[in-house]
Specification:
heterodimer, A: 308 residues, alpha/beta, 7-stranded mixed sheet, B: 5-stranded parallel sheet, globular
């Protein structure tokens, strides 16, 4: 066990899997000698060489398109998009190609690949280094979407993502990259995709969050405890496919549901969660489900903390 | 080339008769497709656009499977998931067609990179039309191919038209092959109605890539006879004179003439081939129209490697209300 922060855990997962599986290659902008703008790939270029840690030209559609080609051939590419805000030039490749290749080819081809991208605000990045576009990808059949909130989960989930048979969007909450370190096993371990985690058990209300908002939800729960409100905090970890069973159990138990996310309110993933759980837990609900989310505005630079 | 032409004309007729809903073919571009595909070795891969059914049949896909895609029936290896002329041919080292333009280009580059990493010695070809050269994916793909020096051959079928827009509305460059210079790869241009010239030009590009010298953009200049697809009406934007000019350069007629001069092809042989293909088409049409559609249950397969819970639920509902 070593104490690692989240970005170090990401690095450890990549290193472990590249040592274990020579099919794993990394590609993206500045992922080589620099080790990425957040240093998530630091030292990998030196250990695995430029053939497996590939600095690419600055074109996201090229990065994802090439990664798809590599995956079609049988490699396990891990593409880094420098910020999730810059993923849109590659949107067509992700949504029209990676997500649909298995389906449209009748299962002849598959695209097992990981797209890593830092997500969310809180680092004074303004509207182009702060966005949370997860709902766009959850909305697309064929993709899996993961967002860890702890170093331990980040390593285990990323290794699972690299071993998965489907394309996985792996969103890393950049605000937590250099957060509090925690013990992370040095060896390989996996955390299965599609399983939520109960961060804090409680009786009165279920708080559902992912990424950096898990920390907010947990802190809020701790603040409310002395006031006599016992919150259950659930970290989704994998957004899609969804661990609906855990959410349903918790919501039925507490009878109250609150979904927290950074992304804008309208058509955010919270809307889907509230719809699903209202339908399945209708008779158990003591209050209308609520959402605490970003506003329906672009993510501003000044007053960032008000947005969060 | 002749077989491709005959099938193409027949299939277009089926669309007009309402037997299939759509067809996008290669009338006038048979040389760009068949002569170029002949220059590839069987171990080389093709990342297709949507006009290359002739190359796929030449590589051995049974006609029944191609028609399976056109009719969306159970013979389609891709299970009727896509509209006509969006075929898949993994057993034939042939990718899977999608409608968005040029998306296959960076994919072919990544595939070539992987192939080289594994020392396979294969060359990866990507087909696309002149309109595709305006797209971001063309730019990103060729940029990457230049930087990574991948073993690719970019087969640009310049048929003069991107649906209704002529070359001069796509790009102000004189020859589209000149774009290669901007990416640091080879760019060559050939008469895409001349089978020998096309074959030799592509062969050189294949050898160039196979010897580790990098990619080539091959512009094959031809004419699109008829519309973009069966859903198009070229009378709205193309003059009868232009249409006639294209027909005069017909690649099938030119190859026939050339082979006759060499005494390598006779009227008899042509008659026999036409007869054989026509009989095959009659037989296969019957088969295609009798074939059952893909199952409703199967719609939920292949979205993911394993059926997730939410799709299991949706499938159950679909079957319950079917």
């Amino acid at each position: 066990m070593t104490e690692l922060n989240l970005v170090q855990a990401v690095n450890a997962a990549l290193r472990a899997e590249m040592r274990r599986d020579e099919r794993v290659v990394i590609l993206g902008e500045d992922v080589g000698k620099l080790g990425g703008v957040f240093r998530a790939t630091r030292g990998l270029y030196e250990e695995f060489g430029q053939a497996r840690v590939i600095d690419t030209p600055l074109a996201e559609n090229g990065i994802i398109g090439a990664a798809i080609g590599m995956a079609l051939h049988g490699l396990r590419p891990v593409a880094e998009i420098q910020f999730s805000d810059f993923i849109y030039p590659a949107f067509d490749q992700i949504v029209s190609e990676a997500a649909k290749y298995r389906y449209r080819s009748g299962g002849q081809f598959a695209v097992p690949m990981v797209i890593r991208a830092p997500i969310g605000g809180g680092v004074a990045g303004g509207m182009y280094h702060s966005q949370s576009p997860e709902a766009l990808f959850i909305h697309t059949p064929g993709l899996k979407v993961v967002c860890p909130s702890t170093p331990y989960d980040a390593k285990g989930l990323l290794i699972s993502a690299m071993r998965d048979e489907d394309p996985v969007l792996f969103f890393e909450p950049k605000r937590l990259y250099r957060g509090r370190p925690m013990p992370v096993p040095g060896e390989d371990y996996t955390i299965p995709l599609g399983r939520a985690r109960v961060v804090r058990p409680g009786r009165d209300v279920t708080l559902v969050a992912w990424g950096a908002m898990v920390v907010e939800a947990f802190e809020t729960a701790e603040e409310l405890a002395p006031l006599g409100v016992d919150c259950e905090v659930i970290d989704l970890r994998t957004l899609w496919p969804l661990d609906l069973v855990s959410l349903e159990q918790s919501t039925k138990k507490t009878g109250r549901l609150l979904v927290v996310h950074e992304a804008p309110l309208t058509c955010g993933f919270g809307a889907e969660l509230v719809a699903l759980l209202s339908q399945r837990c209708f008779d158990y609900l003591r209050a209308p489900p609520e959402r605490v989310t970003g506003w329906d505005i672009p993510f501003g630079y000044a007053r960032e903390l008000d947005y969060l | 080339m002749l077989r491709t032409r005959i099938i193409d004309e027949q299939v277009t007729g089926w669309q007009r008769q309402g037997r299939i809903r759509f067809h996008i073919g290669s009338l006038g571009e048979e040389c760009c497709i068949i002569a170029s595909a002949c220059a590839l070795r069987a171990s080389d891969w093709i990342f297709p656009s949507y006009r290359e059914f002739g190359a796929l049949l030449m590589r051995g896909m049974p006609l029944r499977e191609y028609l399976g895609n056109l009719f969306g029936n159970a013979h389609d290896p891709a299970k009727g998931r896509q509209m006509p002329d969006h075929y898949t041919g993994k057993p034939f080292n042939f990718g899977c067609v999608s409608s968005p333009i040029a998306t296959q280009i960076p994919q072919a580059v990544g595939f070539a990179y992987a192939s080289r990493l594994r020392n396979e010695g294969a060359v990866i070809a990507a087909y696309f039309g002149d309109g595709a050269t305006s797209s971001g994916e063309f730019h990103a793909g060729l940029t990457l191919a230049g930087v990574l020096k991948t073993p690719n051959v970019f087969l640009l079928r310049n048929n003069g038209w991107a649906i209704s827009c002529p070359n001069e509305r796509q790009c102000a460059v004189r020859a589209l092959s000149d774009k290669a210079h901007g990416y640091g790869i080879r760019g060559v241009r050939c008469d895409g109605n001349n089978a020998e010239e096309t074959y030799l030009t592509v062969l050189e590009a294949v050898e160039h890539a196979a010897h580790g010298r990098g990619s080539t953009l091959v512009e094959m200049v031809a004419s699109r006879q008829g519309g973009h697809s069966t859903a198009d009406d070229p009378r709205l934007y193309r003059s009868p004179e232009e249409e006639a000019r294209g027909l005069k350069e017909d690649p099938v007629a030119r190859l026939r003439q050339r082979l006759r001069l060499l005494e390598a092809w006779s009227d008899d042989e042509e008659h026999q081939l036409r007869q054989a293909v026509a009989e095959e088409l009659v037989e296969e049409l019957r088969e295609a129209e009798l074939a059952s559609p893909p199952t409703l249950e199967g719609l939920f397969d292949d979205v993911y490697a394993h059926l997730p819970e939410h799709l299991r639920e949706q499938r159950e509902k679909a079957l319950r209300f079917a």
